[in-house]
Design goal:
- This protein has one domain: GMP Synthetase, Chain A, domain 3, CATH 3.30.300.
- Helices cover 43% and strands 19% of the residues.
- It is built from 4 helices and 3 strands; from the N terminus they run H-E-E-H-H-E-H.
- The chain starts with a helix and ends in a 19-residue tail after the last helix.
Length: 127
């Protein structure tokens, strides 16, 4: 069970990481990295960040770059949260592919992407 302190720190880290990735991806046209969630260990020493990458075709390449620069990202994060946290947790990044999973299920069910499930089908009246 996540404590209140863990939840507050997770929200803080999510917000600041989102800002870091927004600034970095602004330089690369057409790529968007968003932080879908952050989970912090009970001793606050490890933070797992789940990232969603658009377009998903570049996801593996982007994740490799992020994992290679994890120490730099941690340093930038530490500069932003230095007045809220005494020690910045170790960061590990994971790909959040839940949106791709949902799209795959929609395709398997025969529903076209972007089709509204709540819309009523049009009825054809006999002539």
């Amino acid at each position: 069970m996540e404590t209140t302190r863990q939840a507050k720190i997770a929200r803080l880290l999510q917000k600041e990481l989102s800002e870091i990735f927004r600034k970095q991806t602004a330089k690369t046209n057409g790529t968007l990295v968003s932080v879908s969630s952050v989970r912090v260990s009970p001793d606050l020493s490890i933070a797992r960040a789940y990232l969603s990458v658009f377009p998903s075709g570049k996801a593996q390449e982007i994740m490799d770059n992020i994992n290679r620069s994890a120490k730099t990202i941690r340093y930038e994060l530490a500069q932003k949260v230095r007045f809220q946290l005494r020690k910045t947790p170790e960061l590990s990044f994971y790909l959040d592919d839940s949106l791709d999973y949902i799209e795959n299920i929609d395709n398997l069910l025969g529903k076209k992407p972007g089709e509204d499930a709540t819309a009523e089908p049009e009825l054809e009246l006999p002539e």
